[in-house]
Design brief:
With 249 residues, the protein is mostly helical. The protein is 73% helix and 0% strand. The longest helix is centred in the middle third of the chain and has 21 residues.
């Protein structure tokens, strides 16, 4: 009986000791400046990841701007008890902010789509007639436009349905329901795209490489090439029209 009483007393003392032991303090929340420093590389990474699936006229700088606004709102709303990983939380919020911005500006009229098709047909006709990739002034002449008007048209036409080009899965994750035919068609399209890129004028290939591979903004490309940001956008827009013409052959 005494043995049982002693055991009970020891258990009681242990329980009391556990209750009196203070819990370790929660890690302090990083300051706003610290969270911004963590978040800015995430914003840039998400913006460039999405930009790879968008029309080239969509300036990654604009995506970074929309993502940065989303980041600041996300920092104010972050609750570490609900989202312990700030990086994962911010990645999702920044991506959502950029997609919201794209949806808000994603407009192309029926007339714009018709003009894009007409321009692509003109490029195909010229390529067949000349046996080479046509110059901008030749495309303009085929359309009955001045070079300046065509460059503005190409820039405007490139502002097609961005989310439609982005696809339902902007990160490029293949659907679990994709079958062999989908895989084959995807590979065939990639092969045609590589061939089409090789037909582009050297200047456009250089701009596309800087934009998609080197992840430069249009402003940065302009400084590298010694042209205005507007001219870079025109070159990207003209490349978009040519690629459409090549892929629709």
């Amino acid at each position: 009986m005494l043995r049982n009483s002693s055991a009970a007393e020891n258990l009681d003392r242990a329980t009391t000791s556990e209750r009196s032991t203070p819990l370790p303090p929660a890690a302090p929340r990083p300051s706003r400046e610290e969270l911004i420093a963590i978040g800015l590389p995430i914003v840039r990474r998400v913006a460039f990841r999405l930009a790879r699936r968008l029309p080239p006229n969509v300036d990654v700088g604009d995506l970074i701007g929309a993502g940065s606004e989303g980041m600041l709102k996300a920092i104010d709303a972050w609750d570490a008890t609900r989202a312990p990983s700030f990086e994962a939380y911010l990645d999702a919020r920044v991506r959502g902010a950029i997609l919201d911005e794209l949806r808000a500006s994603d407009v192309m009229t029926r007339h714009g789509r018709r003009r894009l098709s007409e321009t692509a047909r003109a490029v195909r006709k010229l390529e067949q007639r000349l046996g080479r990739s046509p110059e901008e002034d030749e495309i303009a002449g085929e359309l009955g436009l001045t070079l300046e008007v065509y460059q503005k048209l190409a820039e405007d036409l490139a502002r097609g349905p961005a989310l439609g080009r982005l696809g339902e899965d902007p990160d490029g994750v293949q659907s679990a329901n994709s079958g062999p035919a989908d895989t084959f068609l995807g590979g065939e399209l990639r092969g045609r795209l590589r061939g089409a890129l090789g037909k582009l004028p050297q200047r456009q290939q250089q701009v596309l490489a800087l934009y998609y591979q080197e992840e430069c903004t249009q402003l940065e490309i302009g400084k590298i090439l010694g042209v205005t940001e507007s001219r870079v956008c025109q070159i990207l827009g003209d490349a978009t029209v040519r690629l459409r013409a090549f892929l629709e052959e």
